[in-house]
Amino acid sequence: MPHTTTMATMLELTDVDTYYGASHILQGLSLKVGAGEAVALLGRNGAGKTTTMRSVLGLTPPKRGSILMDGTEIARAKTHRIARQGVAFVASGRRVFGGLTVAQNLELAARTLGKRAAADGRTLEDVLTVFPKLRELADRRAGFLSGGEQQMLKLARALLGNPRLLLLDEPTEGLSPAVVSDLGRWLDRLREQGLSILLTEQNALFALAHVDRGYVMLKGRITHEASAEELRSSEEVRAALGVG
Ligand SMILES: Nc1ncnc2c1ncn2[C@@H]1O[C@H](COP(=O)(O)OP(=O)(O)OP(=O)(O)O)[C@@H](O)[C@H]1O
Ligand SMILES: [Mg+2]
């Protein structure tokens, strides 16, 4: 979707300061995700990408600043209330209930998250249409899934909450190149469905191939903001991200 000034804003962080104890991590961070827009948040290890997501989710609430979700202030709201506003989070790494089957993981998510999904919400059927492979894997224990299959399961679970904004933290981490390209196709499909997406990635070239716009951050501050195309072709940005 093209970035225009008339696009409605889904998420807006303004001058956010977030701390872990005495460590001042996010230092006046501001960024926006438009409705139906996919945005990348790029930066090297320790830049503050995950902390930005934790701030939005209320897991590490900011000390100062504003976070608006679809016009509602959520900066100091509880995580469950933020989820109810339509924010879903897919954490990096292997975060599934390994002892449960794929079907049980999905049923659990449908029960706990799906309550707010209302009549027009995404159902398990809709989600299985995006990820048909999960049907074949229904009886498999989640702990035995490959990295890509687990990523699919995590995405499916998040979608069952019927989010309007999806926060994806380093989704390509630990995935083989073949699965990374599958992930790109899933992301494109979710964008087509109009979901707003904020994606953090170390793999900048992957992220920039699947978003409209991006930010580069360094030490808790935004250093660059531009369209995906501009960021891809900027020598300065490539150097800042360590992309060859
Ligand atoms: N629980 C914590 N307590 C104290 N400091 C933390 C904590 N979690 C993260 N940090 C520090 O905050 C800074 C930002 O970390 P964050 O995880 O947000 O970075 P990141 O950009 O997501 O990095 P990566 O690409 O490695 O995931 C780092 O310096 C990190 O060491
Ligand atoms: Mg991180």
Q: Tell me the overall shape.
A: globular
CATH classification class of one domain = Alpha Beta
The helical percent reads 25-40%
Low-confidence stretches are none
How is the biggest beta sheet arranged?
A: 6 strands, mixed
**Total DSSP E strands:** 10
**Structure annotation, total helices:** 10
Task: Tell me which oligomeric state these chains represent.
Answer: single chain
Element order, helices and strands?
A: EEEHEEHEHHHHEHEHEEHH
Strand order of the largest sheet: 6-7-8-3-9-10
Straight-line distance between termini:
28 Å
Helix-and-strand structural type: alpha/beta
Rg of Cα set? 17 Å
CATH homologous superfamily annotation of one domain:
P-loop containing nucleotide triphosphate hydrolases
CATH architecture of one domain: 3-Layer(aba) Sandwich
Distinct small-molecule ligands in the complex: adenosine-5'-triphosphate, magnesium ion
The CATH topology of one domain: Rossmann fold
Question: How would you concisely characterize the structure shown here?
Answer:
This protein has 244 residues and is α/β, with parallel strands linked by helices. The protein is 35% helix and 27% strand.
Please explain how this structure is put together:
By secondary structure, the chain is α/β, with parallel strands linked by helices. The chain has a domain at 8-79 and 198-244: Rossmann fold (3-Layer(aba) Sandwich), CATH 3.40.50.300. It has ten helices and ten strands. The longest helix has 16 residues, at 177-192. It is globular and about 45 Å long. The protein starts with 8 loop residues before the first strand and ends with a helix. The model has no long low-confidence stretch (mean pLDDT 90). It binds adenosine-5'-triphosphate and magnesium ion. Magnesium ion (MG) binds at residues 49-50, 169-170. Magnesium ion is lined by residues 49-50, 169-170. Keywords: Amino-acid transport, ATP-binding, Nucleotide-binding, Transport. InterPro entries: AAA+_ATPase, ABC_transporter-like_ATP-bd, ABC_transporter-like_CS, BCAA_Transport_ATP-bd_LivF, P-loop_NTPase. This is ABC transporter ATP-binding protein. Residues 11-244 form the ABC transporter domain. Belongs to the ABC transporter superfamily.
